[in-house]
Design a protein that fits this description.
52% of the residues lie in helices and 19% in strands. By secondary structure, the protein is of the alpha/beta class. The strands form three sheets. It has an eight-stranded mixed β-barrel, surrounded by four helices. Strands 5, 6, 7, 8, 9 and 10 form a six-stranded mixed sheet that branches. Strands 2-1-4-3 form a four-stranded antiparallel sheet. It holds the Pfam family EAL.
């Protein structure tokens, strides 16, 4: 026990005893010097207290001088410190640390040997600083405002004669006492402090080794119940008891918080965190299970119509229906109206579909006579067939749910790899579309329209082409246009294409023949959108290209049939000199009704009919009918997709004049296009 007390576990106590023994060996002289130093420090402390008292006596007056920046008053206050050797300098600073008043006086040095300065602090300086506050009246009350600082530099010095007298007096009287006290202290320390303290250290070490202190034993130390060691043991025992109690409460709170963190508070089913944890566990085993995602159809509309409180009631009712229909499943709510279930030991589609079919409709009222229902879309994936990790399985159920929604909702669908690939491709197209609209990083190629009778170029069609980065991602411009139509971004895309086409044509307008028209494809959505007419006027004025040079090509669509907005736009275009062509005629919606109601200036027969000429009798019949209708309705006809001389010869013999296709030229960049126009003009203009 004694060795432990004076060993490495008690370094402070060991150093204390060693110091006592060393003092005894050195003798009274060194002890006398130490005691003298202590006395001098005490004397310096008294001097410092006296200095503080003097400074504190002038705080109020100094604050007043600092507040008023009154240097005269400040100097008057500091006059009392002149001649006082205790102060080396006293300064009154304002709130910006500028001196308002200050005094300094030289320090009188005593010739004390340098070795004394090493032993004791015979020459020491202390800076005393006091904040200055002044009461001001603000907001109907007096408040203390900081106005500056009072700083005094106090210098303590000890004369050589004073020091020697003190040392010799103490040395002679303490030499014998030091030896006696050292012996007594060592014995008392060992018996009264060392032994009981060693016992306490041993007991604390043993308790510290107990696991998490839940079974910590209380300390006991006989014979010291009523002294400081008894109080120390009592305080330690109280802390141990409180720690044990706190740890038990903490364990209970942690268990409760863990349970709450994994429960959805509204529906009282598991949340996404608990779902992921359970999926991680299940995926580490080989037992099959089905992962099912549910989504309430048009839940947002139900909320808007009935309020969020009714929506919450519906979610609770749907969660209860899941528990009743799937009693052995683990049910989680992962989003607003999204639920995910884990059905163990299921790997057959038909059995799972039979189990889930009753959940396709959920009554919005508990009344059994209620006829109001809300439907669900359900996506299913299987472990391990559709994924081996939680992330893969959740992705698979998302794809299955997407398939269910694409199929019209209110149905059960299973993960399909082809649909997954298609969705990934569509996502790539969507991102490319957004990037094109935001960065305008696309080009337009122009395919010539030719008069087969004269050989001259009478117009061109602007066609979207993607930049190199988009082509590397296997995104086609056709896919871009289709995605734009599906998402409604066709209006923004069409606006950018129109602006680019007007700009390109403005660069070559002076080199184009008379009556030349450039065509731009316009979606029915764009044609009837707000600001379409204003956008055309802006493009024309900004690029100095007349609207009479523009031809708008529209693909057949049910949106274009006999509406006020389309009729209004059509009349404006006609008055502005803009022609309108019906693109891809024969493949779209209600072609004959279009011809009768919208009043197109031109019909473009789809390339699929042109390319089978002249050998296909059905295609010949279609061309003859279109020619007859166009003549009766006073419309021009352009044959798309002309690729051979035989096709051109047949069309000319049947009375058609205009054509477009690879037989004349592929879509060209604007510089190559103007060269093509120049060549055709030079070659055929003399024969016209």
């Amino acid at each position: 026990m004694t060795s432990k007390l004076f060993g490495t576990k008690a370094p402070l106590l060991r150093r204390f005893v060693a110091s006592v023994m060393l003092l005894s060996m050195i003798g009274g002289v060194v002890i006398s010097v130490v005691i003298a130093s202590v006395q001098l420090n005490h004397l310096n402390t008294e001097k410092e207290q006296a200095a503080r008292l003097q400074l504190e006596n002038i705080l109020d007056s100094a604050a007043y001088a600092a507040f008023n920046l009154d240097s005269a008053q400040g100097l008057s206050l500091l006059k009392g410190f002149e001649g006082d050797q205790l102060f080396q300098a006293v300064t009154i600073f304002d709130n910006y640390d500028d001196a308002v008043a200050s005094i300094e006086q030289p320090h009188q040095l005593d010739l004390i040997p340098e070795w004394l300065s090493v032993v004791i602090p015979v020459d020491e300086t202390v800076v005393l600083s006091y904040p200055l506050t002044f009461k001001i009246y603000r907001d109907s009350q007096f408040i203390d405002q900081h106005v500056g600082n009072l700083v005094g530099t106090v210098h303590f010095h000890t004369s050589e004669a004073e020091f020697y007298d003190l040392v010799w007096t103490i040395c002679l009287s303490t030499m014998a006492e030091v030896l006696l006290i050292a012996i007594i202290l060592t014995i008392l320390f060992h018996n009264q402090i060392g032994r009981p303290l060693s016992k306490i250290i041993d007991s604390i070490d043993k308790n510290a080794k107990l696991e998490r202190q839940k079974n910590a034993r209380l300390l006991k130390i006989d014979g010291h119940e009523n002294d400081e060691f008894g109080l120390l043991v009592h305080a330690y025992n109280n802390s141990v008891q409180q720690a044990v109690s706190y740890m038990r409460e903490l364990e209970s709170a942690k268990a409760e918080l863990k349970a709450l963190s994994e429960i959805d508070p509204l529906t009282n089913v598991s949340n996404r965190r608990a779902l992921l944890s359970e999926l991680n566990t299940l995926c580490n085993h080989e037992h099959p299970f089905a992962l099912v995602s549910f989504d309430l159809d048009d839940f947002g509309g139900y909320n808007d119509a009935n309020g969020h409180q009714e929506g919450d009631v519906l979610l609770v009712r749907f969660a209860r229906a899941l528990r009743e229909q799937l009693p052995h499943a683990s049910i989680s709510r992962t989003g607003g109206d999204e639920f995910v279930c884990i059905i163990p030991s299921q790997s057959h589609q038909q059995s799972v579909e039979d189990l889930l079919t009753p959940l396709l409709n959920t009554p919005v009222r508990e009344d059994i006579t209620s006829t109001q229902w809300i439907s669900s879309s359900i996506g299913v994936a299987f472990f391990p067939e559709n994924g081996h990790t939680p992330r893969q399985l959740l992705h698979a159920t998302d794809i299955a749910l997407y398939i269910a929604k694409e199929a019209g909702r209110r149905c059960v669908r299973f993960y399909d790899k082809d649909a997954d690939i298609a969705r990934t491709n569509r996502e790539a197209v969507r991102k490319a579309l957004q990037r094109i609209i935001e960065t305008k990083e696309f080009t337009l190629h122009y395919q010539p329209k030719v008069s087969m009778k004269t050989g001259l170029v009478i117009g061109c069609e602007a066609l979207l082409r993607l930049n190199h980065n988009e082509r590397q991602q296997n995104v086609a411009h056709v896919d871009i246009v289709e995605e734009a139509e599906r998402t409604g971004l066709i209006v923004a895309l069409g606006r950018e294409i129109m602006r680019r086409a007007f700009y390109d044509i403005s660069q070559i307008l002076d080199h184009l023949p008379d009556n030349f028209r450039f065509s731009v494809n316009v979606s029915p959505q764009q044609l009837t959108s707000d600001g379409f007419i204003a956008e055309l006027l802006s493009c024309s004025e900004d690029n100095d290209v007349p609207l009479q040079s523009l031809d708008i090509e529209i693909t057949e669509s049910s949106q274009m049939i006999n509406t006020d907005s389309t009729n209004k736009v059509r009349n404006w275009l006609k008055n502005a000199g803009v022609t309108v062509s019906l693109d891809d005629f024969g493949t779209g919606f209600a072609s004959l009704e279009y011809l009768l109601t919208y009043g197109f200036d031109q019909i473009k027969i789809d390339r699929q009919f042109t390319q089978v000429l002249p050998g296909d009798d059905d295609a010949k019949a279609i061309f003859n009918v279109v020619k007859y209708l166009a003549d009766k309705l006073n419309m021009d006809v352009i044959a798309e997709g002309v690729e051979t001389l035989d096709q051109e010869t047949y069309l000319l013999n049947q009375g058609f004049e205009y054509a477009q296709g690879y037989f004349y030229a592929k879509p060209l960049v604007i510089d190559d296009f103007i060269q093509f126009v120049a060549c055709r003009q030079a070659k055929y203009s003399s024969s016209v």
